Amino acid sequence: MFDMMKMMGKVKEFQARMKEVQDNLEKLQAQGESGAGMVKATVTGKKTLIALDIDPALLKGEDKVILQDLVVAAVNKAMDAADVMAKEEVRKNTDGLLPNIPGMDLGSLMG
């Protein structure tokens, strides 16, 4: 028999855990590199760019286009890594909390 009160308790617990996940994502950091490590980007689990490190050797030349491409590549790699981390954080904190419903991807709640 379906227990509505038990389900409501699960929903409240799920909401609390999702709030905790959101808070944890601010603390997670992911890094991406390009140009053999000459450009490094760091983002939070919420995909906010918080640091960008550019090797000084790249700043001496006139290759502005190459530098721009390397920055874009590093940031995109960091964003991809942050996405993977965020989905794992959601999975870890909500595993077993709600029934496994086919097609329901809780990781999509992160962004």
Structure description:
This protein is of the alpha+beta class. It has a domain at 28-96: Ybab, Chain: A (2-Layer Sandwich), CATH 3.30.1310. Helix content is 54%, strand content 16%. The protein contains three helices and three strands. It has helices at residues 4-27, 56-60, 64-94, and strands at residues 29-34, 39-44, 49-54. It has a three-stranded antiparallel β-sheet.
Tag the structure with descriptive keywords.
111 residues, Ybab, Chain: A, three-stranded antiparallel β-sheet, alpha+beta, 3 helices
Percentage beta strand: 15-25%
Q: Which CATH first-tier class of one domain would you pick?
A: Alpha Beta
Average pLDDT for all residues: 82
Largest sheet: 3 strands, antiparallel
Structural class by helix and strand composition: alpha+beta
> What radius of gyration results from the CA coordinates?
19 Å
Q: State the CATH architecture of one domain.
A: 2-Layer Sandwich
Q: Helix fraction?
A: 40-55%
Per DSSP, the total helix count is: 3
- Lateral arrangement of strands in the main beta sheet: 1-2-3
